[in-house]
Design a protein that fits this description.
Length: 267
Amino acid sequence: MIIPKTSEEIALMHESAHVVSRTLGMLAKELKPGVTTKYLDKLAEDYIRAQDAVPGFLGLYGCPSTILTSVNEAVVHGLPTDIPLKEGDIVSIDCGAVKNGFYGDHAYTFEIGEVKPEIKKLLQITKESLYVGIREFRKGNRVGDVGFAIQTYCEAEGYGVVRELVGHGIGKKMHEDPEMPNYGRRGRGKKFMEGMTVAIEPMINLGTHRVKQLSDGWTIVTLDGQASAHFEHNVAIVDGKPQLLSTFDYVYEALGIESDEEDEFRP
Ligand code: MG
Ligand code: MG
């Protein structure tokens, strides 16, 4: 069942999402070769609690951490470890928080030092595909329109679009209806309505779309061992159009990146 939100609830969700956005920005400043993802996890937990919020992942489905850190061939759900990040790695940091009873949940894939051009391009296209998908999340469109847009955009580059994991509705629960696949057919699936709030999150592989789960019961990796990227935003439909609840502004501030990519989706 899809649960549309009132404008008051959307304002609260904006706050929850921004707890996560600020946390990703804080982590962006810490990322360099030699840093461990376990260290980042501890920083993230403290930082979320300092904002009168609670980590959203910790304990959910038995998750042992505040952030999920997926390095290189890991797609999503990587558990923080004591292995230091190294020059040329990429790491997707996915983070959740609960504030005022509502969840925020989004992710950014970071470069550690200088990464190979082909990996840089994978990150760029995956992030672009996120906005291509968000643009289709408007009143009257359907779930398949978002999936189709993301899939078409990424497959044009020869990338693999992960099938086993999908975006989702979000609200008082981390995962609400509908599922939001990153593949699909135009005009198919549930219809979007005013007040809907979702997490759109393309998971895109350099090679095959096929994935497997590691024996830790969490980490999803690409079957061919090639790199994978993951970007996620929380989005609401307001006045029929997509409006971002989350932002990468804090990340860009930390990394010194200029970007106008979010402008068309701001309140
Ligand atoms: Mg997430
Ligand atoms: Mg999500």
